[in-house]
């Protein structure tokens, strides 16, 4: 049995979630709306009995002192933040938005998923507070 990498957060759950994302992408294709991807993903979470919250203001569950407007698409089991996109490219603003979500929620792992690409490539974003290399403001895996 190989040792678990120190900076690999929630590997079993994130693997399961990534599998669900691939199923959603295979079923709906590339050119649906973000809401359609979220709706199907939510259906699959319910079927698998995975605990989640959808489009909830993070200050309501993690930090009331934070300003309004931090509303990711999903928070899974209060440990992983997920944000879906349906556009040509993931931008720096999308990345910084996820970093803000992670900072507000004080969670180590976020995932950005762009369903517009031909091949789905979920991006894992690590909160630098939890990462052993503190010189980065965040890490994309």
SSE map:
Elements (H helix, E strand, L loop, with lengths): L10 H18 L5 H14 L4 E3 L3 H4 L12 E3 L3 E6 L6 H14 L3 E6 L8 E5 L10 E3 L1
Parallel strand pairs: 3-4
Antiparallel strand pairs: 1-2, 2-3, 4-5, 5-6
Helix pairs in contact: 1-2
Overall description:
The chain is of the alpha+beta class and 141 residues long. The protein has one domain. Helices cover 35% and strands 18% of the residues. The protein has 4 helices and 6 strands; from the N terminus they run ααβαββαβββ. The chain has helices at residues 11-28, 34-47, 58-61, 92-105; strands at 52-54, 74-76, 80-85, 109-114, 123-127, 138-140. A 6-stranded mixed beta sheet has the order 1-2-3-4-5-6, with helices on both faces. Helix 1 (11-28) crosses helix 2. The protein is globular, with a radius of gyration of 15 Å.
